[in-house]
Amino acid sequence: MISGADDLFIFLAWAIYGRRLEKAFPKPPGQIQEKRIAILTPLWHEAGVVRRMVEHNLSTLRYHHFELFLGVYPNDPETIAEARHLEEAYSHVHVALCPHNGPTSKADCLNWIFQRLLLFEESTGWKAEAVVTHDAEDVMHAEELRWISHYLDRFDMVQIPVLPLRTSGWDVVHGVYCDEFAEYQTKDIPTRMLLGGFIPSNGVGTGYRREAIEKLAEVDGNRVFSPECLTEDYENGYRLHRLGFRQAFIPLARLGATIVATREYFPRRLRAAIRQRTRWITGIVLQSWQRHGWSGGWGDRYWWWRDRKGIVGNPMSHCANLLSIALAFYLTANPGDAAMRLREMLFTHPAAAAVTGMLLFLQAVSLGMRMAAVGHVYGWKFALGVPVRVPVANAINTLAAVRAAVRFFAACRSGQPLVWLKTEHSYPSRAALSELQPEPCVRWAASADAT
């Protein structure tokens, strides 16, 4: 009930104040002053997707002043070979070789990519005014860098929305990602910004002003990203907030048939989804709790609560789902006895009836909010599957929470660092890409010589 009331508060705040964002974040003008942007992309066993990612994004981005840095490990020769091929083919692609074998953490890889950027600047005289992070499976929107560059005039960290690519309604595991990201990006993060909370980076589609990046390095031993953190993106959002930098999440906006967002496929198999969410829960809940406790004012503590309550709430929700299924079977098998017990509860135990009614109301509001957000992003036909996918989401998050707790406390006991829990990635087909970019704008030629 407490968690449901918390969700209801966020919904009411969004319903009352959400329209303010439309005025605060208008679409950028047709002509902007492009900042020089360095895109940092860490790679570990990404030989199967990195070439298509680079080729597609370089051919569609409506932006000129950027350089792309690919971070690789010495013990990943297949990915190194692909990265070197791209470096030879495109003058805007550069390979950053980590000095040690992988996998370490994504943050560690990003730190070494940043060091490669500094060497590139020394040797060429080109200096990045902003840094953007991306992964090997990301489909960047053609306007993404323009939007980030434009809003970095006002803010020190800008987060572009991240949305899963739509798959079949029968693809239930991936559908869970679609549901949760649609609700999170439509309602939760915009409301968090409106209420003054810190904005966690999504890890991809995040732009940082050079001054913010250099300050992060200055206060933490030349480490822009915290290498011991499995969710360095979340950590950086709080670090920047604590340092007083201005943060912004760009609300969902449509340009023609597309939404200005980074798109990608998320895990489509149960095991891979649990593995990825184990990393998320370990970093966002357990490591941040270990590092920061409940520090800050009451506002920060409220967002700590919002971000961490799932480690208890998800298992409780999963147990409630199992009890509901058992109850449904019981009611079907014993309709007469069920009716008698229902009358007994209503007339003999009115307090229990009131609590049950309130819980059902909160659950209905929560489900309705998610369906509305999913319908807005993916259409109402896809949204009709939300009630089926919610119990699946609870089961996945419960298993991930248990696995995260086991891994985290085992690492604490042994003194061994937690490493990058790699998720297998896939890149969209040509047909899916054509839907995302209905009017491609080819900016870069196929070779460095032609460029």
Overview of this protein structure:
There is one protein chain. The protein has 451 residues and is α/β, with parallel strands linked by helices. The chain has a domain of 259 residues: Alpha-Beta Complex (Spore Coat Polysaccharide Biosynthesis Protein SpsA, Chain A). Helix content is 57%, strand content 9%. It has 17 helices and 11 strands. Helix 3 links the parallel strand 1 and strand 2. Helix 1 crosses helix 7, helix 7 crosses helix 14 and helix 12 packs across helix 13. It is globular, with a radius of gyration of 23 Å. The N and C termini lie far apart (60 Å).
Number of helices: 17
Q: Please summarize the sheet with the most strands.
A: 7 strands, mixed
What shape does the CA trace take?
globular
Rg, Å, rounded: 23 Å
Portion in strands: 5-15%
Class from secondary-structure proportions? alpha/beta
| Order of H and E elements | HHEHEHEHEHEEHEHHEEEEHHHHHHHH
Mean pLDDT: 88
Low-pLDDT regions: 429-451
Using the 3D structure, state the CATH architecture of the domain at 21-268 and 426-436.
Alpha-Beta Complex
* Strand segment count: 11
Assign the CATH class of the domain at 21-268 and 426-436: Alpha Beta
